[in-house]
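OP here, attaching both records as promised.
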Amino acid sequence: MKISFLGEGWQGVFDFPYKERNKKPRIIGQTMVIDKGLGLTEVKELLDTAANYIDYIKLGFGTSALYSANLLEKKIALVKSYGVDIYPGGTFLEIAMLQNNLAPYLERAKKLGFTCIEVSDGTIEMSQKMRKEAIDRAHQMGFKVLSEVGKKDSRDELSDTKILEQIQLDIEYGVYKVIVEGRESGKGVVIYDENGVIKEAELEKMIKGISQSEKILWEAPLKNQQKELIMCFGPNVSLGNIHPEDVLALEALRLGLRGDTLRNYIINNKKSVG
């Protein structure tokens, strides 16, 4: 399925302020969308509108277990036909690990047509041996493997040191991206406070401790988080848990087509009118 080229409708009229924004296929600047139960028509409309700006669709949590097999296969095939990766949420893998069903889980995911697997321990406790085994098995089956670090419940919160150690280990295990937990809400987890505001000291520690920033995908469901991370890292920061209705708004932020990032561009480049 071919989608019109980025900006084609306005081509030749003006340049995007942030011209360095990467186009697909890309390794950095990726966008992951969380799908909590869109129907086929809604997914098709989303992809017709925004497939150029989406790298992954995650069927959030364990929702993919609630589809009929026929509908799930159709949905996966539809997403893939637009050149977008699709995978089940990490919570689903955690349940498989709890029930000692990793192999059947991966086999079924492959048969259904998923292209990626997320390995996480946001709710369960998982040893390094089990985590590496899950990553290795998923690799062996041909999946693009994403890992996630951070706990979903603040009562289980990990120290910065532990999170950074896990990021480095996952990179050594060969994962394609390491996702920093942000939850669907973007509140009270890792770099976000209870109101969804970025804790600057926490973010600074993370930045200093990560050796390969291009490997990181930050879950950032709220607009203020997206804006701050773009202003910190630039338009090619990888962001996730983006709600379907926010995909174009996020891309506009990345390109300097919203006041927040346009203002930053004007200040940094000393631009003026007249």
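Record two, same layout:
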Amino acid sequence: MEPHLKTIFAGIRLIILDVDGVLTDGKIYWSMQGECMKVFNARDGFSVRKLTEAGYLFAIITGGKTEMVAKRAEYMGVKHVFLNVTDKLAVFESFMQTVNINPKEVAYMGDDRIDLPVLKKVGLPACPKDAIPEVQSVCSFVSRYNGGCGAVRELCDAIWEVQHPCVG
């Protein structure tokens, strides 16, 4: 990892994640009964849970409004979940005041245009490998993995490894 990136990773205290295309592969499944289903990656969830248990702060900001996202967040230990968001920057700025964290201490992983305003404000803008080109162009960290396929795990592991180099 480049030295300037290590410095950024070393200061991260809060990780904010989008859902569709980040924690999932972006696909949405509908049953005949009208139930919406999404697939989450167990390895991504493991890394989020590991970091929440170690005291890292996490949040989810998503335009989606399905209850399964809140349940998945609860399972991972994520206490701050913002659903049905149309203006992610407004939610982000309000949340920053609530938790009193400098945006430079924030990693945000997004994959689409709605994420751009927040990605441009944080210290560590990140995205999955299959994010749209406009998002990739503003990100300091582009995962080797697609959304829902380990991108979040890779980000969490990188933060952990920089901040805890002697701990597995």
